[in-house]
Structure formats: C-alpha cells, structure tokens
Amino acid sequence: MNDWLLALIELILFVALAPLFSAWVKRVKCWLQNRRAPALLQPYRDLRRLFAKQVLLSHNASPVFRATPYIIAGATLLAAAVVPFISVNLPTAAIADVIVLAGFFALARFFLALAGMDVGTAFGGMGSSREMTISALAEPAMLMAVFTLAMVAHSTNLSTVIDQLLAQGLVLRPSLLFALLSLVLVGIAETGRIPIDNPATHLELTMIHEAMILEYSGRHLALIEWAAQLKLLIYGVLIVNIFFPWGIATSGSPGALAIASGVVFVKLLVLGVLLAVGETVLAKMRLFRVPAFLVLALTLALIGLLSHIILEVG
Amino acid sequence: MSTSLLLSAVLLLPLLSGVAAFATDRQPSLMRWLVFPLLGLAGLTAVGLGGHVLLHNTIETFIYAPGLPWLHWHFRLDPLAGFFLVLIGIVTSAVSLFGPGYVREFEHGKQPLSVLGFFTGLFVTGMLMVVVAADAFSFMVAWELMSLSSYFLVVYQHQNPANRRAGFLYLLMAEVGALSILLSFGVLAGFGDGFSFEAMRAAPLNLTWASIAFALGVLGFGMKAGLVPLHVWLPEAHPVAPSHISALMSGVMLKVAVYGFIRLSFDLIGDVHWAWGVALLIIASITALFGVLYALMQHDLKRLLAYHSVENIGIIFMGLGLSMIFYGTGYPLLGTLGLVAALYHTLNHALFKSLLFLGAGAVLQRSHERDLERMGGLLKRMPWTGLFFLIGCISISALPPFNGFVSEWLTFQTALQVPNLESGVLRAVIPIAAATLALTGALAAACFVKVYGIAFLGKARTRRVRRSSEADRGMVLAQALLAVLCLLFGIFPTAAVNAMNHVTRTLTGETLSTATANGWLWLTPVSADTASYSAPLVFVGVLLALLAWALMYYVMRPTGRVQTERGDTWDCGFGPLSPRMQYTSTSFTMPIRRIFAPVWRIHEELERESQPGLPLEPKQIRYQVHAEDVTWKWFYAPIMQLLHATTRRVSRIQTGNLRHYLAYSFVTLLLLLWLIT
Fold first, then answer.
1. Cα separations (Å) of B295 from B281, B291, B444, B591, B633?
2. Is residue B323 pLDDT above 80, yes or no?
3. How far is CA B595 from each of CA A2, A295, B82, B628, rounded to the nearest angstrom?
C-alpha cells in the first residue's frame, strides 16, 4: 500500500513539475538568444488562465473533438505513471513496459490527429497528415533503440532495465551510446522540438503540432498544452534515468528519496540546458528533410543493436 | 447434448439456411425470418461446440458415411478446431444479425436473393467443415465448397464487368492454390500410406520431403490467405462482394487458410525446421509492409480494408514464423509464445476486420458511396456506426487498451526473446523484422486516421452523404457485438491466453502458464521481470479520463460554471470554408507517397480546362492519382509472357489440316501400343 502511495506522490510531482521543465528550457533559450526570459512560473499562469476561460467550439466539432483533450491527458498521465521518476520498483511500473508506453503516446497521437481533421479545415488535415507521417518513421527507430536496451538488460520493463543497468556498474557500452543518440533524435521528433517542429510558431508552411490544435481553446487547450509539456518531461526523464541511472532511489527510505529527487532535478536541469543549446544552434528543417533525420536515428539504433550482438555478447 | 449431435447441427444448419433461401424468391421476408436466423443459429452452435471443445480440451474423432467407399469422412474435434469454430461462429452470428437489413437493397435488384442466400449457406458450411475435417479427402471437398461458393458470391452482381473479372481472377488463384494444397497432402499421404490425417501425422518424412510439403503448403494456403505476391485477387474480390460477404471472406475465410497452414505445419508435418520459420518471417514482413503501404494509397474504402487484410495476414504469419524459429531451435516455450501471438492476432483480426467491413457496408448502403473522397461528416449522420467504426479503427491500429494491441505486443515480446538464440544472423534478422512490424503498425495508424478523419469527421463532401442516415437496428447491433468483443479481448487478455493454452498443448506440447501466473490483472508472457502489461488497469485509466469529460459535460456544464460556446471555424478572414477545402484522402497521404515513392507505380493525371482569354485561371482542374500494384509487373507479367510464348510454340502443331491430325492420332496410338507391350 505504501508503495502505491509513493507512486501516487511521484506521479503528482511529475505532473506538477512538467510546466516548470518547459519554462526552464525556454529560459535558457532566452539567455542564449539575448532575450529577456519570462518568469519560471509563466506556464502555470498560462494554464490557470486557460482553465478559467470558456471554450469556443467550431460549429462542425463532433464529440471526438471534445473527448480528445481528455483522452490525450489520460494517456499521457498513464505514460507518466509507468516511468520511474525518483525511485524504481514501484508497483505502477508493472502496468506497462516500454512498448506499451509507446502505445500510450500512439493513442494520444491518434486522437489528436483525428481532432485535427474534425473541424474540416485544411490546417488541421495538414497537421494530422504530417504528424502521422513523422511518427510512422520515428516508431521503428524508437523500437530498435528499445530492442538494444532490452537485449542489454533482458527486459522491457523500465524499472527492471534501470535495476539491471545499475547492477552492471559503470561499463562503457557502445550499444547504449548509439541507443542514447537514437532515442534523443526520436524524442526530438516525437515532442515536436526544433529541428522537426517549432512549438513557438504558427506559420502554416512549417507547423505540425500547432496546426492540429489550432481550433482548441479554454480548458481543452490547457489540457493539451499540459500533456505536451508532460510528454517532453517524460522523454527527458527516460533519457536521464535509463542512460544515467545513478542516484535513483532503489529503496523507499526518506533519505534515499531525498537524494534521488535532488539528483534527478540536477540531471534534468543539465538536459534542459543541452536541449536549449541544441535548439539555438539548429534551424528548423524542411518537412522532406525529416525522413533523412529519422533514418539517421534508425541507422544509429541499428548500429547499436549490431554492436551489442558483435561486441558484447558471447 | 452429445458433441456428435452438435457437430451435425453445426454442419447442417448453415446448409439448411442455404436451402431455405430458395423459398425467398416468392417471399423475400423469409430472408429475415428464416434464412438469416438459421445462419445465426449455426454460428451460435459453432461457438458453443467450439467453446466446449476448447475449454474442456476434448479430442474426439467421428466417422461419417459419405465419402469414398474405402475412405469415409473423418471429422475430428480438437482444441485447434474448437478455437477456429468459435472464431467462425462469432463472425457468422454477427453477419446474420447484419444481413437482414443489408440485403433489403437487393430485394428489388436484378439478381434473385435465393442465389445469395444459398451460396452464403454453402460458404459457411464449407468453412466450418474445413476446420473439423480429419482426412485429406473431406478437407479438399470442404475447401472447394468454400472456394467455389465464395466465387459465386463475388460475382453475385455480375452485370458489372469489374466483378466478373475479379471473380475469374479469384477462381483461378483459388484453384491453383487448391492444387498446391492437394500436392502437399499427396506428399504426406505418400509417405504416411493413407489419406487420413492420422496416417499423415505418422508419416516418416526426411527433411527434403518435409520441406517440399511445407513449401507447397505455404503456396496453397498463402494464396488463400493473401501472402505477397499471391495476394492480388484479394483487393479485387473482397470489395466487389456484398459487404456482409466481404466481412465473412476477409474476417473468416482468410483465417481458415491460417488454420490450414497451422494444421499442416504444426500438426501434420510436426517437426518444424527453423529455416522454414526464417523464410516465412521474411515473406510475412514483406507482406505486412506491402499491404499497409498499398492500403494507404487506396481511396475505395472496401479496397483499402482488403489491403489491410493483407497487412494483418503478414502480422499473423510473422508470429508463426517466429514461433517456428524458436520451436525449431529447441525453445518450445518461446515457440508457444509466438504461436499464441499469431492465434490471438487471428482472432482479433477476425473481429475488427469484420466490424470494419460491416461498418463500410452500412455506409455503402446509406450513402451509396465507397469512395472516401466523397464522404465526410458521417459521424453526425450515423452516430452508432461511427462509434463502432472508431472502435474498429483503434483496434486495428494496435492502440491500447483494445485487442489489436495485445496481439502485436505479444508478437513484439516473442521477437524480443531473440538473445536466447545462438545464431548471430538470426539475432540480427529478427529485430529488423520487428522494426518492420513497428513501421507497419505506425503506418496502419496513419491509414486509419485518414479513413476515419476523411469519412466520418469533417464536413460532408457530397449531397448523398449529407443526406445519409443511421443504419437499421440489426446492422447496428451486429457492429455493437463485434465492437464489444474487440474491447473485451483487449482488456482481458489473460482469459484468452488461458483458453489458447489448450490449443498449444496439443500442438507444441507446452502451455504459456507463465503468462497468466500473476493473476488475471497482469499479462506476463515470459516472466514478471521481463515484461508485463496490465490491460484492465490501462482500461481503468482511459475510463477515468472519459469520466472526467463526462463530469465536465454533464455535471459541471449545467451548473453554468464551465461554459462552452459555438462559433465558426477560423477561416483566416477569407470568408466561409467549403467542404472542398478540406484535406482529401489523396492529400493526406502525399508525404508518405513522396517518401516511399519507389514502392508503387504511381499514375498521375492532371486535366485542366482553361477559360478563353484567362490562361492562368482554369475553369476546372481534375487531379487523379492511381497506385498500381507492382506485383503485376514484376511477378505476374513474366509468368504470363512465359505462358504466351509456350502456347504459341505448342500452337504450331495445330495446322488445321485433317491429314496431320490423323497422323498425330496414328503416332499416339503406336506410342500407346508400345507402352502397353
């Protein structure tokens, strides 16, 4: 029972911190680009404002359009529940392994793309079409990276994977290095960051995610924005906790938990800085350059897999 | 009631339904009150009998009087047959609910209803008989009954030349396939000295002959199931049949081919070789990817669904291939995992593909449209069909917590067990196949976003679609039944796996007891540490999200604390949006068409009707894209050329001169005399 309580607390913390992580990335980007940064609490204020506003629906919106924000929020919450944030071996981690995690994101994306097509504008269809194309290409790359991890750790349960990697100690594995690179590329594509998509623009030629949610307003928009921030944090936590698992709490003692919270906080700060640097030095790609980007991710994952088979086994 | 009596009922009821159909020419309402209820009863009996055999793990053999004098018909009930009886029974029951409403439009058509009813009955009888047949003779009789009666159903509306062409292609390929199956049985019967499956099972085969029998089986059953490049009849024949027949053909008949393949390779041949698994895995991966890429390019709804059947058959055979690899290299437990994944996907595909075909049928009947480009906004006109079609779309796109996800997840888990294998090549090939599966799944999701988004969401594109209304009650109930089953098999996978354990015990000698070892809440295919999935909890999570919506919508909104207002869609300030401004099916898949361009032979047509004096402002622009199946050019055209060349050579002896023919007869007679003496 205690474990479930701890899992619930971690989930609440996870969800509560998601806007902060986005704010941190934005702040570092502003510093790098010589702009004045908004307050770290700005995303929270935006969410509060959106939740209070009334919803304006298109005449053509069907129930699918109205249910979508809740389904996206629900699926992303489920995803957050299974990712080990501060401690491993929580009961919620067994609900789903990493393939099911990808399934949660796919479910959210499916409904978001449907909602984009629901109001009957060209923008929505354009966003849906692009989003589904990019995700179709990202999926095999992600799965190959997951395969590499699963082969190293003999498991697809995230908690077990982290346990295994901790137990194996600090060994430099080329396979994991390639898998990390691949997963970073996939993460960038899936969360719609530069150079795949620019979350800060509404230019019709380039937008993907924003095109699908153009018709959303009020609490619906708030839920979708929050889910997007949560998804970014999930990918961040996945990367720091799987590839740099040191410091994560393996027991439920308060001391270990406090240390783990501090460590994961610092790791995420560093990751946020790296993401901001990346977004500052790169420009957004043309849509038809994206396949090359994702094929690179797939190739990296394949090399990782092969190097595991050739170098590390037997 | 004894199983023997039930078995007779299962085989005779659909036959009776077919015969009863002859009375409908004078009394069309009999279709509603007699023919379809009998078919439904047959379906329910099949579910009952199959469920009984499956759950009680009984194996019984029956010998019936018809057949050859020295070979009576053998029927055998075992868990594998039981599993497929349940599958056929479920879909047949749903179809019999759907049928009465759907065939009403044929009542005043050019063809008599009796033909449709008669061949439907024969078709279902044939399929049910295939899965219980226990000797090659009755198997082939049942198989041909199934193939031929479905041919007549495909050409039911034969005034349309496309239907006749599709029917001929189907018949041709079905017969070539049947010949191949016959030869495969011939090999087994030759070594086993008998045509009963009992004798074939005991046949002492060396690897070469076993491989030949296996290859012939892949050819024969693969032709029926639709493995690439033998799939070409499928996207032609399935769309032109009446929709409830399409559901039976795509949902069930392809599964009967899967049954035949499993029976042949796992049961009759017995010791599978791992190399067969590798070959099958490669063919299956190509089939899956090919199917989904072609499905993406279709805008005829039923044709699109037919190509998705090709894709799903690929996924099923991937599971079977993985199973053979593990089973053949000495890991029977992992082989069992692959087999369970394949069987589960077989069941799931039967459910959601029938559901989607029935939905397409309802749309076709109400709007008279099969072309996606002319649909739109159907969810508002047909809310129930729209809801169930959405469930079908989610299931086939393999999204949690529905059933398609479970079986694909199990297939992935099987592939992930690859570190157990010794061979480095296999360890590299299997993950690539799994990546293909991931790509296939993601593309399928893209395709069904397209289908649902274009057909059911947005605005109606034509007047006929705008005026369509909900289908009648029976048709909606049939879809509801299948949709609920899709959900149930998605959230209680442990129960389904438990039932399938009986099937695997008779085939591989192993059960997947670890999968359900941690209670009904957790599905753990190998061990709890390796991977686990709790479908019920995921379902609760999704349900809570929907409850939050319902709370907002039904509780908070009436209090006035949350407000929702309706307004126009944003039009960039350029005036009203028209339905023609929406994305179309062709434009939705344009990025994919560009990325995977070499896969298809794309024919683009652009017609421009210009206005006099205004060359830059054409009055009308027509743009059409058509993706041609490359197998015609690369696989079938060479075969046809060879055939033509050979026949041309042979035709040289046909001089038309009487003396030459007399000489031929004389030489033939001499030859025969020489042979005899």
1. 21, 6, 8, 15, 18
2. yes
3. 51, 11, 45, 17
A189 close to A138: Cβ distance less than 8 angstroms: yes
The CA distances from residue A204 to A124, A209, A217, A279, B272, in Å, are: 10, 11, 19, 20, 56
Task: Calculate how close chain B gets to A231, using CA atoms only, in Å.
Answer: 17
Please name the amino acid found at residue A237: V
Nearest to B430 by CA among B444, B442, B445, B412: B412
Question: Which residues, 6 or more positions from A314, have their beta carbon under 8 angstroms from its beta carbon?
Answer: none
- Which residues of chain A have a CB within 8 Å of the CB of B375? none
Give chain B positions within 8 Å (CB) of A147.
Answer: 416, 431, 434-435
Two tokens at A313? 């086994």
pLDDT, tens digit, for every residue of B445-464?
Answer: 999 999 999 999 999 999 99
- For B84-106, what is each residue's pLDDT tens digit? 999 999 999 999 999 999 988 88
Read off the pTM. Answer: 0.94
A77 close contact with B: CB closer than 8 A: yes
Contact yes or no for B565 and A55 at CB 8 A: yes
Q: Is A249 in a helix, a strand, or coil?
A: strand
Interface of B with A in 287-346 (CB under 8 A): none
Q: Which residues on chain A are in Cβ contact (under 8 Å) with B379?
A: 62-64
Q: Apex CA B382: angle with CA B377 and CA B387, to 5°?
A: 90
- Number of other residues whose CB lies within 10 A of the CB of residue A168: 11
Chain A residues with beta carbon closer than 8 angstroms to that of B416: 147, 150-151, 156
The nearest CA of chain A is from the CA of B564 a distance in Å of: 5
Of A114, A215, A219, which has the smallest distance from its Cβ to B452's Cβ?
A: A114
Q: ipTM value, please give it.
A: 0.95
Per-residue pLDDT of B362-380, as tens digits, reads: 999 999 889 999 999 999 9
pLDDT digits (tens, 9 = 90+) for A265-297: 999 999 999 999 999 999 888 888 999 999 999
By mean pLDDT, which of A11-25, A189-203, B330-344, B584-598 is the weakest? A189-203
The residues spanned by each domain of chain A are 2-312
CB A248 within 8 A of CB A1: no
What kind and span of H or E run contains A55? strand A55-58
